[in-house]
Specification:
By secondary structure, the protein is an alpha/beta fold. Helices cover 41% and strands 14% of the residues. Helix 7 links the parallel strand 3 and strand 4.
Length: 167
């Protein structure tokens, strides 16, 4: 998800989008958003996390709840390490260790004292995010994603024999 966000997400003000660099830092979303929410209590703060990255530091939801922050955590749930899978494929390696099981993110949020929502359709995403921001406190919004087209494109772009993607 990081590359499309870096390329397509538009901000209204400088320094309002934090991205970890070089694609090697996983799990930085929730801690970074916690600090952003603490430093800017009058602004909306949202972490956008892959499911794997969230599982690395998701326990920090407890910190956000304890600090009484207003924070929305959007989890893009594809059940695997999508970027790593694309890199393995691009190098001609078989996929190994890239798929995993996820917890019920709504129940996990609730166990930490946060609110949780699972979105099943793209049409429900914006209303769920708006409700999370309006509701205040810490809110997790989990959304299933099918990143097969993205992984295929990434693999084509990274492959040494890559041909430009057709329109």
């Amino acid at each position: 998800y990081k590359i499309p966000f870096a390329r397509k997400y538009r901000t209204n003000h400088p320094n309002t989008l934090l991205l970890d660099n070089t694609l090697a830092t996983m799990g930085a979303g929730v801690p970074s958003a916690i600090v952003a929410a603490m430093l800017n209590p009058g602004h909306r703060a949202m972490a956008v996390c892959g499911d794997g990255g969230f599982q690395m530091t998701g326990q920090e939801l407890m910190t956000a709840v304890e600090q009484k922050l207003n924070l929305v955590v959007l989890i893009l749930d594809n059940g695997g390490w999508g970027m790593i899978e694309a890199k393995q494929t691009a190098k001609g390696f078989p996929n190994y260790g890239v798929n995993f099981l996820n917890p019920d993110f709504v129940k996990l949020a609730e166990a930490c004292g946060a609110k949780g929502t699972r979105v099943e359709t793209l049409d429900d995403l914006v209303p769920a995010l708006e409700a999370a921001f309006e509701g205040g406190g810490v809110h997790v919004v989990a959304v299933p994603v099918d990143d097969s087209k993205y992984k295929r494109l990434l693999g084509e772009l990274r492959s040494p024999k890559a041909k430009p993607p057709s329109a």
